[in-house]
TrEMBL record:
GO terms for molecular function: acyltransferase activity. InterPro entries: AcuA, Acyl_CoA_acyltransferase, GNAT_dom. This is Acetoin utilization protein AcuA. It holds the Pfam family Acetyltransf_1. Its EC number is 2.3.1.-. Keywords: Acyltransferase, Transferase. It comes from Metabacillus malikii.
Length: 210
């Protein structure tokens, strides 16, 4: 599959400061920036930066960032699903996962999350993919946000909706283990019906077990 990546950018202005949302960014560009010390949801900022540089080099890997000058304050990643997850079982070339999205706490409230998703979808190549994301409440910053599970889930869903991702049912045991967890997806305009069918089979694996 041809993995074209077309760069797009959008500027957000707030309180006399401007934040640039841009991507997909190259590993070289990423290496030149500093990661905000508040980006600790997955691992320490320097290690997270290293992980994102590696993703940016993958043929299908896409990193969209939010930065204030040279300081990265938010990002979203897209890549093939983890080999250990059911979503990789079909080895589908046209299914990628929104693996991580994070915004530094002091930059929340700028609508950075929504705009990271909007800029991601400006690239026409995204119409060739089924884009999925799996949301697990135990990854959410409930303490830092002061929200309960359902309030957080609502915000998360709204943010994903901004990128055209919608809720999809699944019998995946980890997702089914808590009602706030969910699978969300966006099916690109050019995705083949056979791929959509394959995605449906991945969503429901227990349906055929009698």
């Amino acid at each position: 599959m041809h993995h074209a990546k077309t760069y797009h950018a959008k500027e957000l202005k707030k309180d006399n400061s401007s934040i640039l949302i841009e991507g997909p960014v190259s590993s070289v560009d990423l290496a030149g920036y500093t990661f905000h010390e508040g980006l600790v949801a997955f691992r320490p900022p320097k290690q997270q930066q290293k992980a994102l540089i590696e993703i940016a080099d993958l043929p299908e890997g896409r990193i969209i960032i939010a930065r204030r000058n040279e300081l990265v304050v938010g990002y979203v990643t897209y890549l093939y699903p983890d080999p250990l997850e059911r979503w990789s079982e079909g080895k589908m070339e046209d299914l990628i996962e929104l693996g991580a999205i994070e915004v530094a706490p002091e930059y929340r409230g700028y609508s950075i999350g929504k705009n990271l998703l909007k800029v991601s979808m400006m690239d026409d190549a995204m119409e060739d993919y089924i884009i999925i994301t799996t949301e697990y409440y135990w990854h959410w910053d409930l303490k830092g946000s002061g929200l309960n599970v359902w309030e957080y889930r609502k915000i998360m869903e709204k943010m994903m909706n901004a990128g055209g991702l919608e809720w999809y049912a699944t019998d995946d045991p980890e997702i089914s283990s808590h009602p706030a967890n969910c699978l969300m997806a966006r099916i690109g305009k050019r995705v083949k019906p056979s791929s959509i069918q394959q995605f449906d089979q991945l969503r429901f694996k227990n349906r055929f077990m009698y």
